[in-house]
Task: structure prediction
Amino acid sequence: MPYAFSPTGARFLPMTRWPNVATRGPGWTPEVEYNCGVTWKIHQSGIAEWLSDFGEHTRFHGILSDPPYALISIQKRFGGTNAPAQMGSDGRYNRLSTGFMGQDWDGFESLEHYQDWVSEWAEGLIEKALYPGAICLFFGGTRTFHHLGVGLERGGFEIVDTLMWLHGQGFPKAHEVVPGYYTALKPAWEPIYLCRTPRGKDTYRQLMRMYGTGGLNIDGSRIVGDSYAINTFDEGAKPFGDAVGEAYTSREETKGRWPANLILDEEAGAMLGEKARFFYSAKASRSEKDKGLEDYYWMRTGHGDWIRIQEERWAELDKSIRARGCIHPTVKPLGLLRHLATLILPPIPETGKTTLAHPRRLLVPFSGSGSEMIAGLQAGWDIVEGIEMKEDYTMMATDRIEANIGAL
Result:
């Protein structure tokens, strides 16, 4: 039977379905436990507050997160003293003055402020919430991901690699200066940092045995396709062209191709002609975003804020101030996130690869509308916990998880 926290978080209440919107007040924290042993929870909190209250709880084995991007240039362009947001009554400029797509959670005083903020919660996560060697993935924005990386490194993370999700579905957002000259390019890729918490004096093998951390789930993330030949030099590696004429042995690989740090969608793959070599994922479809949110109707109140209303009232509104379904602006596709969640999934003790006694626990800071949590559950994580400060997003995530959990 599913369970949920009471609004005070004081005890568990057995439930046959989630409470309606009216019962979801401040401090409401949903959790559900299914018969298959999978448990999830969303903490409605800022990450700093969550860390301060974390205490001596069981640590997490990994992170999958899409944090704010700190698009400061948007705030400067539309939020300054003489900017359009301060002049006239055009709601579009007023919304842009607060941050990315009008979201106040993406508003920072400066990029230095953003770096300090990232390093603060990164250090807290390493100190309090993550096992040594925990593998973590963080999405970034193409204009500011270097500042995210600086903050993560300052906080103590080791940046192991940067993945690139290459897609052809972006829409140019540019201003025409003069005929034929514009201010920006079409967005077509997104960076993803692959990080690891400090391992101390432990080897990677020791980390795997003790905590189930330190290594990537390569075989579980291989790209399924036709078998292919792998050539190995008989006398070891021969870098920089030194292998010309050297003897080698060829073997057939049937497990699938090794996962790469490049992820494509169908359009990008067709351009490269390399479909069999990489993982593929298009952007999230409207139906995927809205599954479980079919009865969500919204009215814009300004500054990017929305309130949920009844369908009858929604139908009477102008299209410019209404929305339906998922209103989160940066929803990632489940196929992509499921691949990433599988890549960092620890082994189970029964395989003999680890002596890990605890369930495999995935943390999702800035969990938004729940996509990373859904993907984590579908990938096989035993416990998935999200941290999200906005109540609207927490409500949407709860219903999206409940609608998608059947995929398990």
